[in-house]
Amino acid sequence: MTEFSSIGSHFQAQTSYSRHRTPASPSWARPVEPYKEYADVLQWIELPAPASTGGGDLWEIIAARRSVREFSREPLELAQLSQLLWAVQGLTAPGGQLRACASAGALYPNETYVVLNRVTDCPSGLAHYDVRNHRLALLAEGDFSEDIGAACLGQASARQAAAVFAWAAVVERCAHRYGDRAYRYIYLDAGHLGAQLQLAAVALGLGSVNIGAFYDDEVASLLGLDGQREVPVYLTAVGRPG
Ligand SMILES: Cc1cc2nc3c(=O)[nH]c(=O)nc-3n(C[C@H](O)[C@H](O)[C@H](O)COP(=O)(O)O)c2cc1C
User: Looking at the 3D structure of the chain, how many domains does it have?
Assistant: First the structure.
């Protein structure tokens, strides 16, 4: 049984709000850029414009959603990848910065990376989603399917998937306003991302599985992160069901 003196229960207590423990006035300043943009990239991968119509019946999609852990060798189409990226992090308010998924305080602490195992018209490698320009920055080229599978505790789904989405949080972007309670919001935000990605995948005839079990240090190293200021939080493996 979990001890109430455990770090988890301590975190829960220390970050709770109550009538006797009101939050400090939040700071509305935004000292940390809401977008991470890489200057030095191997290649920009331009994405087809996402579709804004079609996509099927929401109730049928919700009923059909199931975790898929075995994938075929068939690649993901670049247009499908574009649609999935838009469905989770795309800008959806013309001229504004609000995105497809909700985020506490509209701070969007989670950055989206994609391990490209098999995507048409796209080199294999590691990419970062440039939200503002709806394009991918290729950060590293090569076959990282074994590495991402191994970093996810050896889960075959991550190794087999055509693409693996990985979200990492720029902690200060949220902590500046909410202090340690930011960690709650970061994880809640990530849950929205994974859930919305799964529904979008079903709409495209794809399968997916969310992955919370991974070696934090290995995923951070694969994504090129320091693992402290920016921490890996959640992954989703996507592909054609095998
Ligand atoms: C936060 C979270 C973490 C998860 N981590 C994993 C994981 O590491 N590996 C895995 O195979 N499934 C993982 N899953 C998928 C669950 O096992 C799955 O959603 C659950 O068994 C219910 O099945 P369903 O998604 O098909 O409805 C995760 C799901 C969530 C929401």
Answer: 1
Tokens 């770090």, located at residue? 7
With respect to residue 172, please indicate whether it lies within any of the assigned structural domains. Answer: yes
| Domain membership flag for residue 16 | no
Query: pTM (2 decimals)?
Result: 0.96
CA distances from 213 to 139, 150, 185, 219 (A): 24, 11, 19, 11
Q: Which domain holds residue 124?
A: 38-50+63-239
Strand partners, 208: 67, 238
In a domain, 91, yes or no: yes
Please name which of 184, 176, 194, 183 lies closest in space to residue 112, comparing C-alpha atoms. 194
Q: Ligand 1 centroid to 27 CA: how many Å?
A: 35
Interhelix angle 78-89/182-203, nearest 10 degrees: 140
Residue nearest to ligand 1 atom 27, measured at CA:
66
- 141 in a domain, yes or no? yes
- CATH number, domain containing residue 150: 3.40.109.10
Tokens of residue 18, six digits: 């109550």
pLDDT tens, position by position, 100-150: 999 999 999 999 999 999 999 999 999 999 999 999 999 999 999 999 999
212 lines ligand 1 (CB under 6 A): yes
26-30, 61-65, 168-172: range with lowest mean pLDDT: 26-30
Q: Is 211 in the pocket of ligand 1 (CB under 6 A)?
A: yes
Cα(42) to centroid(ligand 1), Å: 34
The ligand 1 atom at the shortest distance from the C-alpha of residue 67 is 26
Q: pLDDT tens digit string along 6-49?
A: 999 999 999 999 988 777 776 677 677 889 999 999 999 999 99
Q: Is 160 in the pocket of ligand 1 (CB under 6 A)?
A: no
